[in-house]
Amino acid sequence: MKKKSIITLISLTLICMSFNLTLAQAISSDSLRINREGDISILIKTKSKSNLVFNRTIKWINSTYQNPEKVIVGQLQNESISVSGYKQDVFKNYGMPYHIHFTFKDSLVNYRFIVDEFKYESPSASPSANVPCSFFYKKDGSIKPTAISTLQKIEQEINLLYFSYIEQLNNNVLSSDEALAELKKAKDKLDLGIITQEEYDKLKVELMPFIK
């Protein structure tokens, strides 16, 4: 048992290295916490393969953003998606420009949320009125007492996005399009001799109730 645990820990560590994450970030399942760099990464383990997770991420983007085709700034099929968004009036007339980078590997998703700075929402405001995340921290890295409630508001907005995405990933019910895509992929594997006719027929029986 101890040997198996060590092997699992080593495997997880190697995965974290490939995603440039710390082990603590990978294991954590808590709410996301903003830091002075404004760069948050967490490793999400799903029960689905990367192609299905990729499609569900696209579905989440389409349902979350009014103009999804404008917020997607980078995309590599079944491997990665980059989104640029903006949340108005996060605190005291400041808006939050942000980026979310999704990287997919097997059943894992590296979810990376980046805030460059907070933008002062005034037509006459100069760029110098904008503030970085480090503005809320002391030199020793601790949070300024006067900034605690502001950071809580910021984290609330960040986690509204994060947990809505998690909910989308955890949806165990396949959509018609998802089931059809899985069936087509299985047919391609059958034609290539990767799976047997029996395996394909079994999967088809499982997927057909979802296809409309």
Give a verbal description of the structure.
This protein has 212 residues and is an alpha+beta fold. It has 2 domains: 150 residues, Alpha-D-Glucose-1,6-Bisphosphate, Chain A, domain 4 (2-Layer Sandwich), CATH 3.30.530; 40 residues. It is built from 7 helices and 6 strands; from the N terminus they run ααβααβββββααα. Strands 1, 2, 3, 4, 5 and 6 form a 6-stranded antiparallel β-sheet that branches. The chain is elongated, with a radius of gyration of 21 Å. It starts with a helix and ends in a 5-residue tail after the last helix. 17% of the residues are buried.
CATH topology of the largest domain: Alpha-D-Glucose-1,6-Bisphosphate, Chain A, domain 4
Q: Mind telling me the C-alpha Rg?
A: 21 Å
Number of domains: 2
Which percent range fits the helix content? 40-55%
**CATH C-level class of the largest domain:** Alpha Beta
Instruction: Give the helix/strand class.
Output: alpha+beta
- Overall pLDDT: 83
- Low confidence ranges: 2-28
Q: What's the total number of strands?
A: 6
Span from first to last CA?
A: 46 Å
**What count of helical segments does DSSP give?**
7
Order of helices and strands: HHEHHEEEEEHHH
Q: What is the overall shape?
A: elongated
CATH architecture descriptor name of the largest domain? 2-Layer Sandwich
